[in-house]
């Protein structure tokens, strides 16, 4: 096999996994035209078409699927073999690309930025803060952060926060004007601040559970947001009730700026986890895992 074939096969793997020449080029840090040339060269050498190409998507042909099934694990083994020399390095190095919810970026990662940067000066963290669900493999990320209940079973997951518990909160002024809901069903008569994920079509239904009974409430109100801090600020301003997380509101409970209601209907659930495909464990990523794990 020619040395150029290794590059062309690596380009092919990236294109299949991302479904896009542009995204594959970003993952490999090169121009899309370079990947196009690599694919033409590989297909001409093998004498078969490996990819279906449309204006919006790229997918493997039957021959491409067969080739990917054989070469992707082999390249993963090569990458792992290269990573095994990292213990001989003095420091981990490289770039770790992360897809992270905005709340996790602000409250979990940001407080550790300085510690990590000083401890691992040769590692660069590249963070995309977005509340939508992201396919980290397809989008070329090394790892992601999600709530534990939303992580796929084939991922390695490392806990980076304690359990969470949701809270329905409002300002004293709001409750003076509109009263206090006694059950989740009462929320349909209140002004609630809605939340819609950027990647989801429907607004989030507020979830409650008590004594084995589960209730999901479709709330209504004057605002629909996709950012928890904006929702919290709106609640502080008396706009309406917000569905938040207890630890994010604790300072406002202590100051009396926010009041929690329906606490007996809110149960704990797994917090944030750092997750990644098992075949992508670089020394730089392991350094981040060691820094964040609880």
UniProtKB/TrEMBL annotation:
Keywords: DNA-binding, Transcription, Transcription regulation. Pfam families: HTH_1, LysR_substrate. It comes from Vandammella animalimorsus. SUPFAM superfamilies: Periplasmic binding protein-like II (SSF53850), Winged helix' DNA-binding domain (SSF46785). Gene3D superfamilies: 3.40.190.290, Winged helix-like DNA-binding domain superfamily/Winged helix DNA-binding domain. The lineage of its organism: Bacteria, Pseudomonadati, Pseudomonadota, Betaproteobacteria, Burkholderiales. PROSITE patterns: HTH_LYSR. Residues 1-61 form the HTH lysR-type domain. One of its GO terms (molecular function) is sequence-specific DNA binding. Belongs to the LysR transcriptional regulatory family. This is LysR family transcriptional regulator. GO terms for biological process: DNA-templated transcription.
């Amino acid at each position: 096999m020619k040395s150029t074939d290794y590059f062309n096969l690596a380009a092919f793997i990236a294109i299949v996994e991302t479904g896009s020449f542009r995204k594959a080029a970003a993952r490999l840090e090169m121009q899309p035209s370079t990947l196009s040339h690599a694919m033409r060269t590989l297909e001409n050498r093998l004498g078969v078409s490996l990819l279906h190409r449309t204006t919006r998507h790229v997918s493997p042909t039957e021959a491409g699927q067969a080739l990917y099934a054989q070469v992707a694990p082999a390249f993963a083994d090569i990458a792992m073999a290269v990573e095994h020399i990292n213990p001989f390095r003095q420091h981990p190095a490289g770039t770790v690309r992360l897809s992270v919810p905005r709340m996790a970026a602000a409250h979990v990662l940001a407080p550790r930025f300085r510690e990590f940067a000083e401890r691992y000066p040769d590692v660069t963290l590249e963070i995309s803060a977005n509340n939508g669900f992201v396919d980290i493999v397809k989008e070329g990320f090394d790892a992601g952060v999600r709530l534990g209940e939303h992580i796929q079973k084939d991922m390695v997951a490392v806990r980076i926060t304690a359990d969470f518990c949701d809270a329905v909160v409002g300002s004293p002024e709001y409750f003076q004007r509109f009263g206090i809901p006694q059950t989740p069903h009462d929320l349909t008569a209140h002004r609630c601040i809605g939340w819609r994920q950027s990647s989801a079509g429907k607004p989030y239904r507020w979830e409650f559970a008590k004594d084995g009974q589960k209730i999901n409430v479709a709330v209504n109100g004057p605002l629909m947001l996709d950012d928890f801090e904006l929702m919290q600020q709106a609640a502080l301003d008396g706009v309406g009730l917000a569905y938040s997380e207890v630890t994010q509101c604790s300072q406002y409970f202590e100051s009396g700026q926010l009041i929690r209601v329906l606490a007996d209907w809110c149960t704990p659930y797994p917090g944030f986890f750092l997750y990644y495909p098992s075949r992508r464990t670089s020394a730089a990523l392991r350094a981040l895992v060691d820094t964040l794990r609880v």
